[in-house]
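The step that takes the researchers longest sounds almost clerical: writing a folded protein down as plain text. The outcome of that step, for a single protein, is printed below.
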Amino acid sequence: MADESRMTERPKETGHGPFPSGSGEDAGSREAVRRGVSRGKAGRKGRESMASGTGLAGAPADRKEYTKEASMPDTEKKTGAKSHKRPAGKKAGIAAACIAAAVLAGGGGAYAYMAQQYREAFFPNTSINGLDASGKTMDEVKSMIASEIEGYTLTIETGDGRTEQITGSEIGLRPEFDDSLDWILQTQNPYAWLDYQLNPASYSIDAMVVYDEEALDKRIASLSCMDPSQMRPAVDASISEYTPGQGYRIIPEEPGTEIDGAAFKEALEEAVRGLESRLSLSEAGVYREAAVRRDSPELSERLEALNRYAKMEINYQFGSRTETLGGDRIHEWLTTDEAGNLAVNEEMAAAYVAELAAEYNTSSKAKTIRTSSGAELTVKGGTYGWRINQAEETKQLIADILSGESQTREPVYGQRAASRDGNDYGNTYVEINLTAQHLYMYKDGKLLVESDFVSGNLARGWGTPAGAYPLTYKQRNAVLKGENYRTPVDYWMPFNGGIGMHDAKWRGAFGGSIYRTNGSHGCINLPHSVAKTIYENIQAGMPVICYNLSGTERAGSTPAPAVPAPPAETQPAAPEQPPVTETQPSAPAETPAQPAGPGSETPTPGETAPAETQPAPTEAPAPAPPEAGQTETPAEGGPAGPGSDPGNTGGGPGA
């Protein structure tokens, strides 16, 4: 049997034909004879005949072959032999004659004697189908080939390390010779034998082996490696799960054991025709490969995108605090849309923004203030404070992630406040003590103005609600209207729906207990000069903090200061602004602050308070006096004057 490493060429051309006469086979038999016929171009092989170092059925293992191409004679075209040695021809004859002449000139009579031996025998260093045919006759070579076929066994090596065997007897393997061997002898020029000592030649003849194709098909079907239950499909290359701190990576494809039947049969037939001793299914490439391999450009592109998104950061700034959204969270949101593109799960992104809002929103949350009377108080109610616009921030966050670029920014706000560190209302605000009926305005931590006022009528159920509110806007020369009245004011500053601060020139006194029975519809009535000072120093969005504080009641009122003479016409025929309804809402409404810069005194359309019906006394019962039911609970802490803030190292009023 030829060694498994012999290096002969195995053309894939095959032929079909009947069995030769006298073979003993029935002419009607379904046995198909496979004949492999090579139609090669003559020439010498330019490589090691024994690359692996193992011998070929007696062939030398350390000789080199050199390529010398020549045209194939007609005799080669008519046979099934493929030559790797230059055939005899005119040029070869001339070369042989020159060699012979040189040898004879030197008295080489022995050379001519040796040449006669190669008329019936193959030249030195000649191999046929990997068998050493040097000096052997055609019959001797046929015997060697027949002995190779007798007892032939092909070992099949599977990809998972198992082996199976097919024997020649199982598939009706036997020799069948044509005139290929004759052709090899006929092309030999006996006098060129010395050239073959230096340059070996090899031939491959596929037409010498036949087998029963039907028997081969049955044997293939019986192999365990062809059992579908034993086959394992290949696994495509894929992208790994996210690893914290590392991101994603490509998981290589895994080879399977699912066999391509047609490719397997082709490889098996080629091995049998060449009398190979082994067939590696992995080397033969008969296994179905994974559809996606590790070097897939699409997979690499997806990996790059995933890692770009997963390694980015969104750094949210909240004053001196920073909230970082990184890949450990972002990777959970990455999905694939219908087109296979990466997308961000909007619900998960919105849930994260809601978490930010719950942590950092201060709007509608209680405020702690160090009051001007020195008490530290927690004020509940109102809408003042930071508020993230969650819908717009979710859109922005998704866009930032898909950009793949890290960001450092503030969230998208629906309402802003004065400060992110310490109290959110800062050190410029209006403080309204409803119990004391006294107001303070601080600007940059310094008291700008203070005054008595008159708030909502408690007896009629129009008490002014406590809470912290942003100033909605400010307006000059507004007309306040309600049931059976239209009142012009010079300075109108709403902060809670239709409730606001304004001048009240019709009042002769402010403060004390006036508000209990003769109060407003809910607004803060101010002396004209005080309203003017506040108006000139306040802007939309600034905080107005209203509270009740037991123990700060004042018995007496303050006479109203002199008011400048009004203009000749107090009620213009065609007012520039529509009348404003002064109302007392049943509950504080959340009114977002309207953006306004310095000098923005006139509201945009829709900024004026809605025209609400003035509530009748029976619609809302009068609340209890401040000390009985409306007083906010003072927080622990000692007294402090205006601007004293033990929790704010920067100084300034309130906390």
User: Anything to note?
Assistant: Confidence is low (pLDDT under 50) at residues 1-80, 568-579, 583-655.
